[in-house]
Design a protein that fits this description.
It is a single chain. By secondary structure, the chain is of the alpha+beta class. Strands 3-2-1-4 form a 4-stranded mixed sheet, with helices on one face. A hairpin with a 6-residue loop joins strand 1 and strand 2. The protein is globular, with a radius of gyration of 14 Å.
Length: about 70
């Protein structure tokens, strides 16, 4: 038996987390995720290989503001 599941929009805690992109110094690889405001710890969510990946990340988590990059 198959059940239909609705695709939910994932959320982040905007009060405690900042959406950002971590860029590798050596390879230039970009990883999207969330950085904790208090500890600075980064939580990886997805690999960014193209502009479409970045738009998918924004849409999935409902992010409208600018996403900053850090190295």
């Amino acid at each position: 038996m198959f059940f239909y599941r609705q695709k939910k929009t994932k959320s982040c805690h905007h009060e405690t987390e900042i959406p950002c992109i971590r860029v590798s110094i050596c390879t230039g690889e970009e990883t999207a995720g969330f950085r904790d405001k208090d500890t600075g710890r980064f939580k990886e969510v997805m690999l960014i290989q193209s502009e479409e990946d970045l738009e998918a990340f924004r849409k999935e988590y409902g992010i409208e503001e600018e996403i900053k990059k850090f190295y």
